[in-house]
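BACKBONE STRUCTURE TOKENS:
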Amino acid sequence: MTNSQKCGIIGCGSVGAAAAYTLATHGLFSELVLIDMNRKRAHGEAMDISHGVAFSQPCRVIDGDYDDLADASLVIIAAGVGQKPGESRLDLLTRNAAVMRSIITEIKRVCPDTILLIVSNPVDLLTGIALRISGFPPERVIGSGTVLDTARLKFLLGQQLKVDSRNVHAFVIGEHGDSELAVWSSANISGIDLDDYCTGRGISNDFSTLFESVRHAAYEIIEGKGATYYGIAMSVLRIATCIVRGERGVLPVSCYADGHYGLNEVCIGLPCVVGRNGIETVLDIPLSDEERSQLQRSAKTLKDALDALEL
């Protein structure tokens, strides 16, 4: 049995710490266990967050080791070497694969029934590695996928269209990285087709420059401040909320594609229904012929990289 109010976070760097802070201050869990190779770092982060919890909602935040993860319902993996300025997410694979193996081995030992949420980059490839190593069913191994990319797209579209980004409905799917794509063919503003909305408002429907800003947002942020962490922390909160509260929200998480869109044996960002048991359904949303081709190319990039790696 797992405790739905207990969550583990492995890796207390910028991303892991920001995720821990966000989860603690939103009251989603009653207990958070922070684990890091640098135990003093984990201890410091746990103390710092705990002191602020007095102003939000009760949550016990502690540092610990893998044995403290016993009965955790969700384990978030944010550990690994960081992305360097100018380095693609795919370049991170070899350096982070060994880290993932050691982590998953310990998780299998102490909490074999947990749900894994992979945040470390390159997230799609590391989700696939975690799936292979853990032997967990695919619905319990989830990557943060293109949830953040989709949020970036919605934000920028909202700005350009002068509308609340919460009323922008559009997905970024594929690799969380250079080969991702926007699904323009089904994008809409509260049910109004995006092209029709633009025509009615006298706005250009050329969003190619905007999408390049989405695709390169991480590189720009890393160049400016060294790392991205607030946006992904909010994305983690959204995914975790769907799981803990059984919301069955539709999010483009990294999932195992088994025939969806003609893809097989690859983890990639696709719209999924996310609920209490993890990924409940992978949705085959309509794609244009060009979008389908782009998605297949993105999947091939990922699959070739994973197949070349000796696990």
Summary: The radius of gyration is 19 Å.
